[in-house]
Amino acid sequence: MDLYPWNRSYSHGPSDFDATHNFKLWGVYTPVFSKSGHSWFDKAVGGWTLSGILNAHSGFPWSPQYCNTGGNVVYANSGYGCLFPATYGGGAGTNYSNATFMSSNGNFPNGALAYFTVPTWPAAGIPPAPASNIHRNMFRGPDYFGNDFQLAKAFGLPNMKVLGEGAKLNLQANIYNLFNKLNLTNLNTTISNDGISSNPQFGQAQQAFAGRIIELQARFSF
3-state DSSP: the chain helix, strand, coil percent, rounded to 5? Predict the structure, then answer.
């Protein structure tokens, strides 16, 4: 459901997964310890494959909202509860580091109601349109940095009648979030819980993505 379905123009804005700046770097490296690649040392310690992916992007967009309407917008017991703020006076910060989004109010240090006005709506009928500078996904969340790494090796097994010629033992280690980087998510987007006081958690991250995860695999093929 749109945040403002009775006037679709206020639904214009970046998509939920828009990233203004996005950087990806990946690579695969297989070390060789001799020119031929077939020396005893290569066979003993070579054959490893190292690969990694680095992913960094700016924060995903989000929309401020006011939801303490009792689900009575447009008509009684409509079930529709959330509205855009009536106005935005400007002045929000533009720091997208973890420290900002771990702090109460994030980029809105004076409290949400110092920047936004709580919307009003009639007992029945369409609510008035918010200010022209209000739109969907008008703010940005915390920056993201992730790095995944893989280390793998295939060991050839002796040619045996039972196993055949192509028998191998594959060992692999997958490491997700290699540097154990903190990446925050799930921002609190509610400007006020009662229409009178600012929500102290507005603009603050409520969760984080997983920390470092190590996955070990072994596979026998023949």
Answer: 10, 35, 60
* Contact (Cβ atoms closer than 8 angstroms) between residue 143 and residue 97: yes
Q: Exposure pattern of 178-197 as b/e (b: 16+ CB <10 Å)?
A: beebebbeebbbbbbeeeee
Residue 98 has a CB neighbour count (10 Å cut-off) of 16
Contact between 178 and 148 under an 8 Å Cβ cutoff? The reply is: yes
Question: Strand, helix or coil at 120?
Answer: coil
Residue 130 CB-half CA count within 13 A: 27
DSSP state letter for 157: P
DSSP 209: -
Q: Which pTM was predicted?
A: 0.81
User: What's the pLDDT tens digit per position in 156-175?
Assistant: 666 666 666 667 788 999 99
From the list 119, 102, 72, the residue with the least C-alpha distance to 182 is 102
Are the CB atoms for 176 and 218 separated by under 8 Å? no
